[in-house]
Amino acid sequence: MKTSHIRFAFAAAAAAVLASCANSPTPQKIQVSTQVRPDNSPSGRVLQEVNSYRASRGKSQLERHSGLDRLAQEHCEYLRQHRGTFSLNGKNVSHFGFEGRALIARERYHMSSVSENVAASSRCANPATTMVSLWKDSKDHHKNMLEGWTHTGMGVVVDSDGMVFATQLFATIDHRQMTTRERFNTF
Prior knowledge:
The protein is an alpha+beta fold. The protein has 7 helices and 5 strands.
């Protein structure tokens, strides 16, 4: 689990550099959008499990965010491609690049804070249940699932041998940041 409350000038400067190098629209043209994938997709099923668990604990459902989905899916692809080159407690998972994903979420999607759960398993009769169970069994990952986030992005990749990689990004939209940008971009 990784969490970032990006509030430092360095983070803002680094995000500006990243944003200026990317082939993406300027912040004033970016629209915050959500896209719900079909419920039967692997990532859709994991999100259903997470939201079902949140509901059982009296928490609101997380709204899916297409930009966060892309970041999470890209990280799962990275985990699959670099499988065996890293290990966290004996598992094929890594939070490598999280700070960059958090900066992108802040700058492009106006998120005030971002956190991430990552899991991998080769024994998945039901990948959605397995991933959520792994996160429940970890104090920090469990905390992420139950925090007061508003939005999420989910990525799942199943490798040819059945190894499943899942990444879930959690975030909260910073409406103050959006208002400030809208005000400055009206000139």
